[in-house]
Amino acid sequence: MNELFFIGLLIIIGYFAGLLLEKAGIPKIIGYIITGVIFSPYTFEFVPENILRSTSPLIDTCLGFIIFEVGGSLKWSKLKNYKKQLVNILLFESLTTYILII
């Protein structure tokens, strides 16, 4: 029962944080992310770790939906304007990761 309570509470808080930020002109997804960071076990430990372990599949699914929403909000027309910068960033990150792993 506690697990369902915490999940419901976090969903409601995230929803209202998203609405609040949307009114300020910031994407709702940022509200969801901020809520997740604030209530993570690495910041203020509002949610007990045993609940996080038992809800791990749900958390992974929610993160997948967040990533899907972020990807869906990208506009190809805007990305084309930053083609050179994106290529440079991708090359730098790929090479840096390769060098650090080797």
Description of the molecule:
Residues 12-100 form the Cation/H+ exchanger transmembrane domain. Pfam families: Na_H_Exchanger. The chain crosses the membrane at residues 6-22, 29-44, 56-74. One of its GO terms (biological process) is proton transmembrane transport. The protein is mainly alpha-helical and 102 residues long. The chain has one domain. It has six helices and no strands. 5% of the residues are buried.
N- and C-termini, Cα separation: 47 Å
Give helix and strand order, one letter per element, not per position. HHHHHH
Largest sheet composition? none
How large is the count of helical segments? 6
Give Rg in angstroms.
18 Å
Net shape: extended
Global mean pLDDT: 83
What's the number of extended β-strand segments? 0
Assign a percent range to the helix content. over 70%
Organism: Flexistipes sinusarabici
Pfam families: Na_H_Exchanger (PF00999)
GO biological process, one term: proton transmembrane transport
Domain Cation/H+ exchanger transmembrane: 12-100
